[in-house]
Every structure is written in structure tokens, then in C-alpha cells.
Amino acid sequence: MSQDVFVRNHVKIIGQGERTMILAHGFGCDQNMWRFIVPFFENQFRIVLFDYVGSGRSVLSAYRNERYNTLHGYVEDVLEICEALNIKQAVFVGHSVSSMIGLLASIRKPEYFERLVMIGPSPCYLNDLPNYYGGFEKNDIVALLDMMEMNFVGWASYLAPIVMHNADRQELAQELEESFCATDPNITRRFAEVTFFSDHRADLGQALVPALILQCSEDSIAPREVGEYLHRHLGNSTIQFMQAKGHYPHLSHPEETTQFIKQYLSVS
Question: In what residue span(s) does the AB hydrolase-1 domain sit (predicted)?
Fold first, then answer.
């Protein structure tokens, strides 16, 4: 089974360290999005890179609607990779929706994880006022999904510069747009639906593994109120407010991202 997992999720292992770091990409992305972060950690960690089924160079034929109709299917991807590699006490770095995937995985198998690092996390994207501000109304998400279905390329072109939010670096938005367009439209739309309609606020109290929350400024996907809510409700968590704007600081501001992670992990 382990070899199947390596192929299915296009698993790569690099680095020289004794500790393990798992880098988990976000929606519409793949493991290449970590390329600016990897050099800062490969001397201290064994780094595990992978693509979720349906993303990057994963085996698309392994995608099953019944498995991936909630985030728990992606949790299974993570846990099966950990099992195949006999991972214990890893640092899990998750971007965006992968933050919650990592948290759910750590609830299932806390022995696999030493720390969680959450970049732009959100336990729930929908507003539930007056008690919770997630940043989106249901109509916003429905409109986004409709756009994906009617004009996938147009959706990617529209969304990428908004969420990247670094107007002076158009190449980053272009890369993100190309990443979106490289995915299977049907699978990507389904992943978007699963992501944006997920609500894991009730799971936060079950988490035991310490976590770092990296909260970007002017993040249209995970606004500051979301990061603050997560910090209040997630025991043993630390929050760092970044100067980096947008939702992809590991691409736009890798030095600042790395600085906070290293500070949290106490590595040079």
C-alpha cells in the first residue's frame, strides 16, 4: 500500500534533518508552491512534500466523490502518507484549507504530530452573525461556484490577483492563475465547495497538538477576525500577525513566513 500512496500523492522527500516537516498545499495549488520555503528548512528537517488527490501530479483516477466529499477524505491522504513513512512527531505546515486538514488529522492521530503551523487558516468561511465572522455570505460562495462551472478560466483569471493581493508582483498572480487552470475543473470545483462550506469550529476543542497561526494582513480569504477567533478557541495556540498581504505569504513573503516558523520551532 505504501508504494501506492507515494505514487497516488506524488510524495517527495528531501532534506537532511532528523525531525520531519510535512508541507501541505492549499486549494488549487500543489507542492511546488513551497519551493521558496524548502531551502530554509532542508538542513534541519526531513521534508515531506505531496499533492492531494486531484491536485498537482497526483493520480487523478484515484479521486472518488464519496471519499472527498468532506475534508476528511483529504485527512485520510495525510494519515496514509504518515503511516507509509512511519512518521512520528512531525511538524505539519498547512496552507489555507490544509490548516484544518492538519488539525483534523492531529485529532485522529496526535502521535503523528509535534506541532501544527497554520498559514491563513479558517475553521469556517461563512458568516454566522452575530457570533462569528468568516468573511463570506452563502450567496458569495454560490456565485463563485457558478462562475467556476460556467467559465473556469475566467474564474481563475478573476480570483488569482484578488487572493494573491500583491499588485506590484503580477508574476505571482499569474503563477496562481496557471496553477488553478492546471487542475481538473470538476474536481477543483468540488474541492472549492467542500472547502468553503466546511465548518470545523466544533472540532477546535478536541485538538491537543500545539499550533502556530500565521495571520496575514488584508487577507480576503481568511480575514483577521477569523485568525483571532481561531486563536481564542484553539487551546495551546500562538498567533503571529504578519506584515505580508494576501493569502499566500509563502510565495510573496517567504522570508517573513520562515522567520516566524523558525522562531516558533526554535530552530536557527
Answer: 22-257
Q: How far apart are CA 8 and CA 64, in angstroms?
A: 13
Helices 71-84 and 97-108 cross at an angle (nearest 10°) of 60
Confidence grade of residue 24 (pLDDT, cut at 50, 70, 90): very high
Instruction: Give CA–CA dist 22/117, Å, rounded.
Output: 10
Q: What 3-state DSSP class applies to 24?
A: strand
The stretches of 121-248 forming alpha helices (DSSP H) are 138-150, 152-164, 170-181, 185-196, 224-233
Give me 114's grid cell: 509535534
What's the whole-number average pLDDT of the chain? 94
pTM: predicted TM-score of the whole model, two decimal places: 0.95
pLDDT band at 1 (very low <50, low <70, confident <90, very high): very low
Phi, psi of 14 (to 5 degrees): -135, 170
Nearest to 98 by CA among 266, 248, 267, 254: 248
Cα(93)–Cα(98) distance, integer angstroms: 8
What whole-number distance in Å separates Cα of residue 86 and Cα of residue 163? Answer: 36
Concatenate the DSSP letters of all residues of 202-249 into one string: GGGGG--S-EEEEEEET-SSS-HHHHHHHHHHSTTEEEEEEEEESS-H
Quick check: 71 pLDDT over 60? Answer: yes
Distance CA(79)–CA(180), nearest Å, equals 25
Active site residues: 96, 219, 247
